Amino acid sequence: MSSAEQWLPATWRRLTAAVTMLLHLVSAQTSDSLTLVNVLYHHGDRSPLRAYPTDPYQEKAWAHGFSQLTEVGVQQQYDLGVFLRNRYQHFLNKSYHVHELYVRSLDTDPALSSAYCVLAGLFPRTDGHTGGVTWQPVPVHTTASQQDHLLASPDPWCDVTDDVDEIDQRHQLLENYRELLQTLRNYTGLTEDGIAMVDIMADTLFCEEQHNMTLATWAKDALSLLRHKVLPEMISRRYRSTAQRRQAAGALLLKIIQDMSLSASGQLDGTKMFMYSAHDTNVMALLASMNLFDGRPVPYSTAVLVELHTLNHTHHVNVWLRNASRDGLHQLTLPGCDVDCPLSQFIELTKDTALPGATACSIFNLFPLRQLAIVLAISLSTGFTTLLCLFAVTSCCCPRRRLLPPKRYRKMFSEVVPEQVPMIGSSLGSDCDD
Ligand SMILES: *[C@@H]1O[C@H](CO)[C@@H](O)[C@H](O)[C@H]1NC(C)=O
Ligand SMILES: *[C@@H]1O[C@H](CO)[C@@H](O)[C@H](O)[C@H]1NC(C)=O
Ligand SMILES: *[C@@H]1O[C@H](CO)[C@@H](O)[C@H](O)[C@H]1NC(C)=O
Ligand SMILES: *[C@@H]1O[C@H](CO)[C@@H](O)[C@H](O)[C@H]1NC(C)=O
Ligand SMILES: *[C@@H]1O[C@H](CO)[C@@H](O)[C@H](O)[C@H]1NC(C)=O
């Protein structure tokens, strides 16, 4: 084979890929075939959840306090909204219409604030009568985290990370980082155990570094180890099994599939976009549930777009990842499917993960053994006591023959009950005839 022959197909492939990509972008922009969009995104840059006891940057160091979107985050989310407006300008009306869009957020401050910022970018006020208000108010729906079986990840009904084996394995993983944990305990004044320590310190130090706050040498070293070794290892364990993936994003994927199916059959009452405002764990989990997660932490403001297109009465799904504001848009292909994945095939490929999290659990996960034992003990003892009292009351206070209704009532009951059944049926029948 000559080098020219090897060179040609590669170039040809690249050229056709580029043309296909261009066509996709054009088709999405002209929206001829676009039928429904599902958007899930990670909130923008935020302040840490807390500081450690010896931290020079306590809550006052953060303009809005802990766990809040920062000015950087506000801008990132607004930019995401502008991006969505540009991409879907011929699809979504410029003014907000209740039937076109439904927004759902996790019940956390950064997720809620992020939703408002995205919507401000997506629906700027265009009618000229702003009176100082430069955005259109759009409702954002939410559900208390403990009852959120759509976005809380993992599902609060059942957490396979509570699984004893899983916890053992995570503790084992942390055995390799004993020295790091020891250093952290020494310098931070925290007394938390391994996993909690990793969660706190990875978050706090990362937020401080993002905001150019000066970190001590031990903190810089710890952050580097946490971000580049410990967290990736922990994340890679999170979505290994089908049960884990189902539990992390199954309910959301199922909702997306159900909405796409309804839209494809024209039963969706005009909804064009479902928007979900959430955390990086949700984005990673949704990607994992579609077999598309590459194991890397996702940056702030990362959005996954799951688009349903209709061409010539057939429906296909496109998945896009916008993982950094300046890094453009990446089209993802479900393993085992085309870039334009037929809806039926998309459903078939995700059928093991697109299930509510609770179905991944045995009854013992739903009700941990200890709770089950307590509930059983309480109900048994209550039942037994009630029975005992009833028996005591009836045998002591009531004369034996009074336990049954007098004879004439017994007769009435036995006559009335069988006659009522045909009466209902016949009256319905006559109504229908009229
Ligand atoms: C957008 O909504 C306005 C009413 O707010 C309506 O007059 C207009 O026709 C709509 N545009 C499209 C393209 O549906
Ligand atoms: C513990 O912290 C002190 C300062 O607070 C430092 O001098 C010492 O080297 C640290 N020890 C270890 C084992 O990290
Ligand atoms: C931190 O510093 C970098 C580089 O100077 C800058 O681009 C960035 O905006 C700063 N971040 C914040 C939150 O001020
Ligand atoms: C649309 O579908 C029909 C029947 O399935 C087929 O004959 C026709 O060629 C298709 N048109 C396009 C543009 O794909
Ligand atoms: C975004 O995702 C694409 C595709 O997975 C990847 O090639 C790219 O490096 C990612 N960028 C960032 C900043 O994570």
From TrEMBL:
One of its GO terms (molecular function) is acid phosphatase activity. Its EC number is 3.1.3.2. InterPro entries: Acid_Pase_AS, His_Pase_clade-2, His_PPase_superfam, Histidine_acid_phosphatase. Keywords: Disulfide bond, Glycoprotein, Hydrolase, Membrane, Signal, Transmembrane, Transmembrane helix. It catalyses: a phosphate monoester + H2O = an alcohol + phosphate. The chain crosses the membrane at residues 372-398. Residues 1-28 form the signal peptide. It is an enzyme of class 3 (hydrolase). Belongs to the histidine acid phosphatase family. This is acid phosphatase. The lineage of its organism: Eukaryota, Metazoa, Spiralia, Lophotrochozoa, Annelida.
